[in-house]
């Protein structure tokens, strides 16, 4: 279980980016974080694997606090937390399978990782995962040759090979066309259930959040204003969240 | 409604004013220098004519080709070796100094300062300073080119790392990869094409500059150029220049082809 308690962060003095954020997610659940740009969604997500150092609070993954980790403990925690990015953040010059195998680096010795020496099992697993995300025939292609949706699926495979307890998705579909968006969201939802992992995603697409997420957390000006089952999301809540009427998005 | 129209009219007036200012700066400076514009321009064809007559390679100078060719190869080798060594040094320093991969901000500022120092001392000054310690030898030229190239490449590599590798670095850091794993698996493969492109550019540049350095250090093609020039063998000088031009253009075409393949 992932528990966030009283998370606080400010980039500048007296200008809090996050105030007292608390929520928790059970394995097998898909949590969407929604809210206007600049509300603090990315800050929350990147605190969860400590790419951003927050100021105060607790982040408990199965009871152990990530925030109090030293360097090697943090490395062990990070390998249990996969991350999927808006711009995919793949090494475009390398092949698809090399990028998937990067997800194993946290488990390898520095030397083996530096020179990309992977075991047979790891390679086979990478191929299996590529099959799962529908890219079986692309293993040896350069990532720069793929479309956006395909790149994002490589990103998902890279996070899954980490054997993660949590996958963090930072605007996973913001750069994708509607069809690819649905493919990626559907895939994330399916894999969350299949591998019984926790999926936390920042989303701007409220309709997709409502369709695929089990729970939705709403953030406005660094404060948590909504934390309910996704069916409970109503027009009134969206109005307070975004300061305007956006009823169309709910349909 | 009228303000955008006014704005456009004003913009026209501004542009005219700027051109007028540049023109008057030119007139003023030629007045200060006592520069006669008219005879200046008419002298250009004459000068080229003189060049064409005196520097045109003759049958005699063609016989010098083997010697010129041998010195030219020496010079190209000097340029290539100094650039390659400079690139290796610059890559290490750039990784230590860039904002994305570096140690901290102080190191970043210091590295930038060092790079700018090496870059901004003119090549000729480097060569003349180094002549005191290392006398007239190929090594002096090698060192002068190396120091200047290191200055250029550190700066370029740091910017490449910051621009092209930051995002993938973050992704690999998030998987729990260690620092050296991130450098070798994300940063280096990601920046390699831009890196090679810069090294090729510096090699082209350094072949030209190695000629100049050779005049000072008495080595390579520069030495031959200087020798012929001072003994008034202008036809041989013309031959030498022609050979340099051919080699530089060949290198440029070659590196453009390499770029096309790797980018």
TrEMBL record, chain A:
GO cellular component: membrane
Keywords carried by this UniProt record: ATP-binding, Cell membrane, Membrane, Nucleotide-binding, Phosphonate transport, Translocase, Transport
A Pfam family reported for this protein in Swiss-Prot or TrEMBL: ABC_tran
Domain of life from the UniProt record: Bacteria
UniProt keyword Lipid metabolism, yes or no: no
GO molecular function, one term: ATP hydrolysis activity
All residue ranges annotated as the ABC transporter domain in the record: 2-246
Keyword Coiled coil: no
Name under which the protein is recorded: Phosphonates ABC transporter, ATP-binding protein
Source species of the chain: Companilactobacillus tucceti DSM 20183
From TrEMBL, chain B:
Molecular function GO labels: ABC-type phosphonate transporter activity
Domain of life of the native organism: Bacteria
Keyword Magnesium applies: no
InterPro entries recorded: MetI-like, MetI-like_sf, PhnE/PtxC
Transmembrane segments annotated in the record for this chain: 16-35, 77-97, 109-132, 139-158, 178-203, 210-230, 236-254
Localisation: Cell membrane
Keyword Transmembrane recorded: yes
GO terms under cellular component: plasma membrane
Family membership: Belongs to the binding-protein-dependent transport system permease family.
This protein's name: Phosphonate ABC transporter, inner membrane subunit
């Amino acid at each position: 279980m992932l528990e966030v308690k009283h998370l606080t962060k400010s980039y500048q003095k007296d200008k809090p980016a996050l105030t007292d954020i608390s929520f928790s997610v059970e394995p097998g659940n898909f949590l969407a974080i929604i809210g206007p740009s600049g509300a603090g969604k990315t800050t929350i997500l990147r605190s969860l694997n400590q790419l951003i150092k927050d100021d105060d609070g607790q982040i408990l993954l199965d009871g152990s606090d990530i925030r109090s980790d030293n360097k090697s403990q943090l490395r062990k925690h990070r390998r249990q937390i996969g991350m999927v990015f808006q711009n995919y953040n793949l090494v475009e010059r390398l092949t698809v399978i090399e990028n998937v195998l990067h997800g194993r680096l946290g488990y390898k010795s520095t030397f083996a990782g530096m020179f990309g020496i992977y075991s047979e099992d790891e390679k086979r697993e990478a191929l299996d995962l590529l099959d799962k995300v529908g890219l079986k025939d692309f293993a040896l292609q350069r990532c720069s040759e793929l479309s956006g949706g395909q790149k994002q699926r490589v990103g998902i495979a890279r996070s899954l090979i980490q054997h993660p307890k949590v996958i963090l998705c930072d605007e996973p579909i913001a750069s994708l066309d509607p069809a690819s968006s649905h493919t990626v969201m559907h895939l994330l939802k399916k894999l969350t259930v299949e591998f019984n992992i926790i999926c936390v995603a920042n989303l701007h697409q409220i309709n997709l959040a409502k369709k695929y997420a089990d729970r939705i957390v709403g953030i406005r000006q660094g404060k948590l204003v909504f934390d309910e089952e996704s069916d409970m999301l109503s027009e009134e809540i969206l109005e307070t969240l975004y300061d305007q009427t956006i009823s169309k998005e709910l349909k | 409604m009228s303000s955008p129209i006014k704005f456009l009219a004003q913009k026209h007036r501004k542009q005219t004013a700027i051109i007028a200012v540049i023109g008057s700066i030119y007139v003023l400076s030629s007045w200060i220098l006592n520069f006669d514009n008219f005879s200046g321009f008419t002298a250009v064809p004459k000068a080229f004519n003189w060049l064409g007559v005196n520097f045109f390679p003759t049958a005699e100078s063609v016989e010098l080709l083997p010697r010129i060719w041998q010195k030219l190869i020496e010079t190209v080798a000097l340029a290539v070796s100094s650039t390659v060594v400079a690139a290796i040094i610059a890559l290490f320093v750039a990784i230590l100094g860039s904002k994305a991969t570096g140690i901290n901000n102080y190191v970043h500022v210091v590295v930038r300062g060092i790079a700018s120092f090496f870059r901004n001392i003119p090549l000729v000054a480097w060569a003349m300073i180094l002549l005191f310690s290392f006398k007239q030898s190929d090594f002096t030229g090698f060192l002068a080119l190396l120091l200047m190239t290191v200055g250029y490449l550190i700066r370029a590599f740091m910017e490449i790392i910051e621009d092209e590798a930051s995002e993938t670095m973050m992704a690999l850091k998030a998987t729990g990869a260690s620092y050296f794993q991130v450098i070798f698996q994300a940063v280096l493969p990601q920046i390699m094409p831009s890196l090679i492109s810069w090294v090729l550019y510096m090699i082209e540049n350094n072949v030209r500059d190695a000629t100049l350095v050779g005049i000072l250090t008495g080595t390579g093609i520069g030495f031959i150029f200087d020798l012929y020039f001072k003994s008034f063998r202008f036809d041989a000088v013309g031959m030498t220049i022609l050979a340099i031009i051919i080699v530089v253009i060949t290198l440029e075409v070659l590196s453009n082809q390499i770029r096309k393949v790797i980018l």
